Amino acid sequence: MKLTFIYQTLENRNNKAEVEKHGPYFCSLIDSQGNQKQGVKEPWLGEGFYFWDTRIEDAKWWGDTVFKNIGKGYYICEAQYDAHSEKLFDMVGDLSAFDEFIEVAKELKRERKLAKVSFPYVLSHLKNIPEFDYAAIRVCPIPKNNNFHLIYFPFKKGGENIYLGLIGKVQICFFDHTLLTQNFKVVEETSCMLPVL
Q: What is the span of the domain harbouring residue 55?
C-alpha cells in the first residue's frame, strides 16, 4: 500500500463545512438542467470523482483556469488513496495499462473504420468489458505543444537530442469510493470575487 495525497478543486460558494461533510464531489456527464456537459466541464474520463495526483499546484491551476478567470473563488480539498492498488488502471506508472489502452484504441479505429478516436470513447469501451474491473484511472495528458526539452541524453538520434519526458499534470478519476481511504478536507481556499446567487 502507498498512500498518496490527491486534490480536488471545487467552487467556493461560502460552504466550507458542507464541502467537508459531503465531499468528495462526483462529476456527472449531465448538468443540473439535464444537458450533457461540454468543454472544461465535460468529464473526459467519464463520470466519477476527479482529483489531481500529488501536486497541489495542479489543483490551483485548475481553480484559476475554471473559477478565478470568471470571478469565482475555489476550494482545494485533500484526500488520500492507495497508489499501488490493483483496482487502479494506472496509465502513468504501469506501462502495460498504457499499452493495453493504445491497443484497444487501434482496434476500435480499425474495426469501426475511424480516422481517430477520443479518450472517453476508448475508456467507455473498456468499461464495458467484464475483465476491466477497476475502481479508478490515472492519466497524464500532454499538451500538443509540449515543450519539455529540459533534460537531454547524450545520445543523438538522427542528429537530434532525445530528452527526458517530464510528467505533467496527473489526473485521477475514481469511479466510486473504493480507493479513497482518508478524510476529505479543505486545505486551501480563494475567496469568491462575485456574489454567490
A: 3-189
**Contact criterion met (CB below 8 Å) for 95 and 138:** no
Query: Which of 40-49, 63-72, 85-94 is the most confident on average?
Result: 85-94
Q: What gap in Å lies between CA 129 and CA 118, rounded to an integer? A: 18
Express each pLDDT in 3-19 by its tens digit: 999 999 999 999 999 99
Within 26-134, residue ranges assigned H as helices are 56-66, 95-111, 119-127
Number of structural domains in the chain: 1
Question: What's the full length of the chain, in residues?
Answer: 197
Give the Cα separation of 48 and 112 in Å (integer).
Answer: 27
Inside any domain, residue 125: yes
**CA triplet 110, 111, 113: central angle to 5 degrees?**
60
Mean confidence (pLDDT) of the chain:
86
Name residue 30's amino acid. I
Determine, yes or no, domain membership for 82.
Answer: yes
Whole-number Cα distances in Å, 49 to 117, 140, 179: 24, 16, 11
In the block, residue with C-alpha cell 475511424: 114
Whole-structure pTM value: 0.84
Does residue 157 belong to any structural domain of this protein?
Answer: yes
**Beta 136-139 vs 171-174: how paired, if at all?**
antiparallel
Query: How many Å apart are CA 117 and CA 95, to the nearest integer?
Result: 20
35: DSSP letter: P
For the segment 98-142, what is each residue's pLDDT rounded down to a tens digit?
999 999 999 999 999 988 888 888 999 999 999 999 999 999 887
